[in-house]
Amino acid sequence: MSNIIHLFFPGPFGGAEKVILKGLSDLKDRTSIRLWIVKENRCPEYAQYFEAECKKVGIEVTVFSSTGIFDFKLLKELRLKVSKDSIIHAHGMKASFYGALLPGKLIVTHHGHTSHTFKVKVYEFIQEMVMRRADTVISVSIAMKEELDNKNIKSVLIENMLSITPVISQQIVNLRPHFIFIGRLSSEKGADKLVSAFSNIKNVDVSIIGDGAQKESLEKRIKEENLQHIKLLGFHSDVSSFIQRADALVMPSLREGLPMTLLEAICSGIPVIGSDVGGLKELVKHNGILVPPGDIVALKKAIHIFLERKEVFKQNAEILKPDFIKRFSVENWSIKTQAVYLRLSSQS
């Protein structure tokens, strides 16, 4: 098989980071792979944290440095280490861009678009141009594949895998219904919408796990409005204990691919209240409630419906859990990913 290199620019430890970490920890025992990560000078802590997590599970990492949006020195350094028979498996916009400029075959895993800012829209446009020229594009959800199909970008479907050991059954009975939000505190994830929805629903407990640009504004609002039932708990790399204590996960995202937090919840038998976007609309049926993205009134109504029928939703979530665990196993991901490598190697 060809020389397989995974190329990645780590960000705050989230979905893409978990997919690569969990996937490669299994894939490295099935085939020969290398992981190259790029440490950006503006935020070196992301790469440092990710490298440390990789070492914990025995993944060897080569770290490169980048000093700007486009670093000619980095490109030159990468090109010196890549041969024409290499397979570059790029994750994310920046890795895809550099991967397209390297010799060898290119695989792009499209983890989804996350932001509405003009800068990121430019990056997304460039990534779409790269995907049109890639040898293979991998979509991580059915909705994402349909989105790319509509843009005439051909892709294969390899869904994300579950990154944690699923909760066997909920062991803790909460005195009050307990809702959790897990994710980046940024506009596209909708934590501010969650706070608005729960601002007048005070017979519950709400835990917000994550960090990001909205942290200070959320802290200020919670304090000023005396929302003592809403707690900001910061970033945690292991969220399994929070999921185990929850009655429902709330995901009011504006955009999603196939979020790892969603898989962690549904494979643990936890109901979901979320936006009708991306992979959520594929997986949240009788085990939760979906609302239009950005609609705070609809989100608030969904919370009230859940509170009225909580036990029904929890029972449905438990019934669906075994099928989800089988569907989103790391073994399935590894086998399908390895098949892509074999196909491209045979074309060399």
Give a description of the structure.
Helix 5 links the parallel strand 5 and strand 6. The protein has 14 helices and 13 strands. With 348 residues, it is an alpha/beta fold. It has 2 domains: 176 residues, 3-Layer(aba) Sandwich (Rossmann fold); 150 residues, Rossmann fold (3-Layer(aba) Sandwich), CATH 3.40.50.2000. The strands form 2 sheets. A 7-stranded parallel sheet has the order 3-2-1-4-5-6-7, sandwiched between helices. It has a 6-stranded parallel sheet with strand order 10-9-8-11-12-13, with helices on both faces.
Q: What oligomeric state do the depicted chains represent?
A: single chain
- The CATH architecture classification of the largest domain is 3-Layer(aba) Sandwich
The radius of gyration computed from the alpha-carbon positions, rounded to a whole number of angstroms, is 20 Å
Strand content: 15-25%
CATH domain topology of the largest domain: Rossmann fold
> How confident overall, as mean pLDDT?
91
The dominant shape is globular
CATH class of the largest domain: Alpha Beta
CATH H-tier superfamily of the largest domain: Glycogen Phosphorylase B
What keywords describe this structure?
Rossmann fold, 14 helices, six-stranded parallel sheet, 348 residues, alpha/beta, 13 strands, single chain, seven-stranded parallel sheet
Can I get a quick summary?
The chain contains 14 helices and 13 strands.
What does the secondary structure layout of this molecule look like, with pairings?
Layout: E1 3-8, H1 15-27, E2 33-40, H2 44-56, E3 61-66, H3 72-80, E4 86-91, H4 93-100, E5 105-110, H5 118-133, E6 136-139, H6 142-150, E7 156-157, E8 178-182, H7 191-198, E9 205-209, H8 215-224, E10 230-234, H9 240-245, E11 248-251, H10 260-266, E12 272-275, H11 280-283, E13 288-291, H12 296-308, H13 310-327, H14 330-346
Parallel strand pairs: 1-2, 1-4, 2-3, 4-5, 5-6, 6-7, 8-9, 8-11, 9-10, 11-12, 12-13
